[in-house]
Every structure is written in structure tokens, then in C-alpha cells.
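cache lookup: miss for this entity combination. No prior model stored, computing from scratch. Input as submitted by user K.M.:
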Amino acid sequence: MSLPTDRLIHETRFWVRYAETDRMGIVHHATYVIYFEEARNQFSRDMGASYADFEKEGIALVVSEANLRYLAPAVFGQQVVTKTWIDDLKSRRITFGYQVENPESGEVHCTGTAKLICVTPEGQVQRIPQQWLESWGRALETK
Amino acid sequence: MSLPTDRLIHETRFWVRYAETDRMGIVHHATYVIYFEEARNQFSRDMGASYADFEKEGIALVVSEANLRYLAPAVFGQQVVTKTWIDDLKSRRITFGYQVENPESGEVHCTGTAKLICVTPEGQVQRIPQQWLESWGRALETK
Amino acid sequence: MSLPTDRLIHETRFWVRYAETDRMGIVHHATYVIYFEEARNQFSRDMGASYADFEKEGIALVVSEANLRYLAPAVFGQQVVTKTWIDDLKSRRITFGYQVENPESGEVHCTGTAKLICVTPEGQVQRIPQQWLESWGRALETK
Amino acid sequence: MSLPTDRLIHETRFWVRYAETDRMGIVHHATYVIYFEEARNQFSRDMGASYADFEKEGIALVVSEANLRYLAPAVFGQQVVTKTWIDDLKSRRITFGYQVENPESGEVHCTGTAKLICVTPEGQVQRIPQQWLESWGRALETK
């Protein structure tokens, strides 16, 4: 997978937390699922559409699929930058693409996707509210 | 701190999970807070009073205080046994005592306490329902 | 994905931990990556080939790929059973298949795979030691 | 506990991560142990004395005690600021004080302390290297 050239790429930067490492001395692989999540939430906040507000409308985006490829370990003492983009947007689902890199060296630690579907509290699939489709749609047209 | 001799000691046993270790090669210290929580939930289940049912009554027990002393590291490849007892029980709060040990060697990894208070969803302190006071009270009288 | 019919299926059972839930009231999706890991470690232990011993030989299995499909949420108050099998075994890599179910209802929460490669501490890919290839190979021939 | 008035208070700010919440809808209480850790690591980085470098000297600071008081829940959608100071500094141990607040409202979520001791990889207590004693010592004299 490589970064798309035709759309907005959002960047979120964190310091690796000590608690995120494991006894192999590297960031534990489950952590990237959380980096992905936090990066898409930061993406939404930076677009003026906080996911906390999304849930206030009584609906939620639940992850229906996650795929991760691990390329090189990240370690404590470094930062990671998570590049996030909207890979696909449908009326009921959104797919984000991710690439986690070392901002110093450019080395790629992990790439992946997360597919989310819009559901009611009872778990019924439902249309993403128009305002959100439009916000996220703008990220597809940006370039 | 040493184990009380006058009351029921509940034991919960887990395998250390790889994800719980950190790059020092040992169980990360925040993990014990989760061991404590899971041990008291198992304690309640074994008393026939699942905490999941407690929350169904529209109330919750929130942790108001946690204190931990770390004595010797636990590592991947071992089990840990968490010994749990009720240290104190009041009408609105309950304090659990803990000792996490290596079941093979008896070595003590961590001791501590967690104080919980009964609250409504709005965060107002409230009386623990009678049935639960009685269940937990029995654990105080057992020996 | 469905369970394979031609090979050994290992089962590991946990109680959902409170800390594993999120504010949606369900097990957070990153948790399944940890369930997968813990299930394959339990699988190895039950085969008499603890992964803790594997690392003692100065090598490690690092996850190079993880794929998860989320079908139905798991909640606090229930157990989950993780069914694990060896999907593919090569001289330098092993792929595990997973299905996480509610043991009461049989409902499937999540399915997935994790591909691991054998590396030296310096990150160089290397052959899985013969003894381990044989142990895991037996799990492929069991049925 | 209240903030000390006679020494340097370091501030680290995070967004609450979704994965850090639990089904009560609030930041899970074990998360604060990780906030504390990350805040003291940021404190060290900002003093020009990264803890990653500390471990390169073949020694480590292990937590020997942690004490937390929970005052008001933090939620997804907000930031938290962790105020950190050095509460006590001895030749072989350092104690940090913490106060986690909502930066918008000033509400205090959690206060606490973490005591760390300097050890060799074999777990033997040892003197904190002079350079680090001096770095941290400056944070005690700053005001």
C-alpha cells in the first residue's frame, strides 16, 4: 500500500508511551489499532466535526473491519506520525486508510485500513447523517 | 501489609498476557489496577452477585482511591494469583484489599487496596442496595 | 470465514474484563488483537511449547499482519471463547486463524487472522527452529 | 492534596482516547497510571533528559508505589492536562506528584503520587546517576 496522491492526508503525531511497549522492546502490535482510532478522531476534530458530537446524535460508528500490516517496529523514545485519509465513503459506511511513520526517519511502521459502519444503539445499520457525509466528503475532494 | 487472618480470601488466577509486559521485560505497573478490578469482579461472580447485575440496577461502583505497592516483578510465562478480600464495608462504600502472588513460588508481586463508592449515573453518592451489603457482609463474617 | 473442518481447533476462554469495554458499552475492538495473542499463547502452552521458551532461544515471532472482522459486540458480564487454529505454516512464518464466540449463545463476535514471522533480535527473518515446526505441524495433521 | 507552590509544575496535555473509556462512559481508572507515566516522561524530555536515554545507561526506574485519588470523571471529547512535580528526591529514589485536570473547566479528575527507585537489570537498588540527580534537582529549586 502507498499513500494516495489525490486526497487530503491528515497527520496526527504522538510520543510513544512506555506502557505501549512490550517485552520485545517495541510498540505492541495492538497499539496501532488505537493509534488508528485516535488519528481518525483527531482528523474529525480538525475538520470541525468531533466524533464526540457524532455520538450525541444517538448513533455511533462501529468498526466492522480492521487490517494491519506491520513493516518496522516503533520504539519508546520516538514519536510516531499517523497519516490518515478517507479511502472510501458510502452512505452507511466509511473506510479510513492509515500509514504510521517515524517522523524523523520517514520509516513506515505500519499501514492499514479500518472500515466503520453507522449504527443505532440497538446495532441497526443506518445512514450517516447528511452533515457528516458532507464534512467527510470534502476530505475526498480536497486535492 | 499482610493477608488478613480473620476473613474470606478469594483467589483469581490469570496467565500474564504478553501485551501486559513492557520493554523492561516485566508486567507494566498499570496492569495491576486491572488485575485488582478483574479479581473483585470474579470475587463477586463467585459469590453469586455479578457486578454486571449491579449495574443493571442503574447504579455503579466507582473507584475513589487506589493504592499499590510493587514488591517484585511478574513476567510473561508465569501465572499470577490475585488474593482479594473485603477490607472495609460501609453503607455507601466498600474497600477491597489485594495481594498478587506468583502461585509457583509464593513471591508477592504487588499489594494494594481499592476503595469504591456507590453512585447514580449522575454521580451522586448513594446507599449500596441491601442485598449487596448482605452478600459482601457475608465475606466479612466467613472466618 | 468459517471454521476449518480438517484441523485441530484450540479453545481459550476468558471473562470479558471491565477495562476492555469502551463507552459504547462493548468490548473495544483493539481488545480482540490481544485475545488473539493470548489465545495463541495458550494454544502453544497446551501443546507443551510455551512461547516464553521460544523467546529464550533468542528469537521471536513478530506479527507481520493482522486482519479482523467484527460481527457482533461482546459485553461485560459474559465470557468469550477464542477458537484458534493454524491456518498456514511455512519455514519462516506461521498464520493463525481465529474465531471469537459467546460460549453461551454461539454468537460470533469476531473472526480474523494473524501472520507471524520468525526474527532475530536484530529483526532478521530466520527459520523457525525444527522442534517448533514439528510441534505446530502436528496441529495441522490432527484431524 | 493541593498543588505545591514552591516548585516547578510541568504540564502535559492529551486528548482523551476513545479506547481509554469504559462502559461507564468515563476514562477507566487504570488509565491515570499511564497518564502519570507519560506526563513524567514528557517532563523529563522537556528538561532535556529523556528517560529513553536513562535506560541506555543500563539502569531503570521502576515504580515501587502508586497512590491515586479519583475526584471527578473525565470523558471522551475533552482534553486532560496532567500537572507533574517532583515531590521528593533521594539518591536512590524519586517521587512525583500529579494532578490531572480538565483544562477548560479546571475541574480536578485525579491526584496522586508515584514513587520510583533506581535499579539494575537484575533488580538491585542503585544510586541515580549524578547527572540525573542534578537535572531533577533543578526542578526542585526552580521557584
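stored under new cache key. The first strand of chain B starts at residue 10 and ends at 15.
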